[in-house]
Structure formats: structure tokens, C-alpha cells
Amino acid sequence: MRALGDHQGNVYVLYRAATESVNRDMVLLISENTGQSFYGALVHKWKINACPMSTAFITEGNRAVLLAWETEGQVYYAEVGWSQFATTLGSATHTQGFPAESLLQLPGFSNCSLFSPQRR
To answer: Which of 12, 43, 49, 69 has its CA 20 to 30 A from that of 23?
Structure first.
């Protein structure tokens, strides 16, 4: 689980949920009123009947908040715009193909690294 408070007072919480014994989806909770109330958005689905170790990352950039997470040995990311939370996230392209340990270099964001254990 990772959390971030941005420069506008918005709060983001990114975590891997566990429902119905096989759903281990990444979920983002967002508060636009400094944490007084939250709404959620499904970020990435994953069906697996296990309790996987996962890594997540959140950072604030010049134009948006960057989310990054690991699922099945791949690193995914999405940007969340400050004024269009659900619509931006809902249409975000999650880039796959990064190795399990990756350095993401995106314009407007500091370099961030995301590590997941090697799968054998």
C-alpha cells in the first residue's frame, strides 16, 4: 500500500485488494477534501488464488500523479490528472513489458524505481 498527499490537498491511496478468494485487483482511493471522504477506482484486475507480494509507487509530477505497480512480474503505470480523476484513470494506457525491476523515465516526473521479487 502506498499513499500520497499532493500540493492541492488531494489524498491518494493505492493498494492491492483481496476479494472472493481470487481477485487481487489494484485499487486507488482518492480524496478531494483532504481525507474527509474517499471514492475508489479500479486500476488493474488480477485473478489469482494466492496472496502475492506486490510493490506500488505514487509520486506527484508537473501535470499529474503517477501510479506504478507490479503484477505477474510486469511493471504497469498510469497517470491520474488532477481535474479528471475517474475519466483519466479509466482511459489510461497501462504499459506492459518492463522487467520486474525497472526504472521508469517519464517526462514531468522524477525517475522512480519499482522492484518486485524474481519469480522462479
So the answer is: 12
Query: Number of structural domains, the chain?
Result: 1
Sign of the dihedral through C-alpha 97, 5, 17, 81: negative
The amino acid sitting at 40 is G
Q: What does pTM read for this prediction?
A: 0.72
Give domain status of residue 119, yes or no.
Answer: no
**Residue-level pLDDT, tens digit, the chain, 120 residues:** 999 999 889 999 999 999 998 999 999 999 999 999 999 988 888 899 988 888 888 988 877 888 888 888 777 888 887 554 433 343 334 444 444 444 455 555 555 554 444 443
120 domain-assigned: no
What's the domain range around 25? 2-114
